[in-house]
């Protein structure tokens, strides 16, 4: 079964016979890029062999569970499936545009039974039949390039749809990674709270023993109980957020929430080095920038379509068939007839300003899409700078938090020993333990934020995608089966 990306045999030949294509040729809008990212100063680069992100970018985090979830989301997510269907729809529009290059043909068959009125002079009196079978074709040459500009616009739109598909895929993958690391951060917080509950339980037991021998006051026991139950409540409260994140991960992988159960596993990983590259490379990495640029190209071609409406159109037609009063002699050579024409040349003289308005609309649409492209580029630079700053600052904060956690643990140990020795009250123990818990939780939250910022940096850099992965204009129409150009069913093996 023969396949082709376009009806090249007929369409290309007809395109070569046509005249020039009116309208401006496309020039990519200028989008100035800085020489370097502002926040990349002092950024720790990846190893030379890791100069670019891999396609499966999530593997740089080294988490097998995340790898499996990302693979499931890439294949089973319904938002990605919707974007794939929309891309196929855009490809079909390219095929539809290409069909305008070819002539249109039709086959007709008719029969007529009649009887002449009395008194009329006719060659054949009485009842008679008239049978007719004919093939007809008409063609409107693309003299001014309206069809070519429409094809150009459709191909650019299909390329934009392909980039949008990759953008949706990247968004789903990044959202899943964010939810996953936030869930693991909650697991880590839960472990901190569980360890704290265990420590508070021991402190409560000690306080009760001291109260039993008359060394501690009843108020100390009540405060210890209050502190223990408060920590337990905090641990339970994390369950709500964790359940919601687990449900979100399930939906992203194309499963109902009840079908996914992620066992608790505290977050222990650290953000991997992410290859940033140069700002100018960002224009070729981000699918949303590529989609916006292709939309500009599509809008530019629409100007040519609007301009071609000012020029006359030529229509050529021909027909060939058989006509007979008898069905048995219908296909005799003597019953054959043919006709060339009519050939018509038409020019719209007055339309009340409709063509002028359409031209202005096409130009304004181009200006809007060009501005949207430049804004998308700026937003891309901003997102990279934001995440670079976040990672740099959060790394510094995490180092400070680690020192605070170490100091808080030492403070708890010292205060606890002093309380056992009777040299300090239980209030000091409570204050030290509360401070230690706050610092432990803050450190875990900062680590979770660092992982999320690393994911967002990867997303801002395009997730390892390159604009060279876009389908070429020749590929934008997809594969077309040859039998699709026949008006009657053809058996397919």
TrEMBL record:
Coiled coil: none annotated. The keyword Metal-binding does not apply. It is found in: Cell outer membrane. GO terms for molecular function: efflux transmembrane transporter activity. Transmembrane segments: none annotated. It is a lipid-anchor. InterPro entries: MdtP/NodT-like, OMP_efflux. PROSITE patterns: PROKAR_LIPOPROTEIN. The keyword Transmembrane helix does not apply. Keywords: Lipoprotein, Membrane, Palmitate, Transmembrane, Transmembrane beta strand. One of its GO terms (cellular component) is cell outer membrane. PANTHER family: BLR4455 PROTEIN (PTHR30203:SF33), OUTER MEMBRANE CATION EFFLUX PROTEIN (PTHR30203). NCBIfam families: outer_NodT (TIGR01845). Belongs to the outer membrane factor (OMF) (TC 1.B.17) family. This is Efflux transporter, outer membrane factor (OMF) lipoprotein, NodT family.
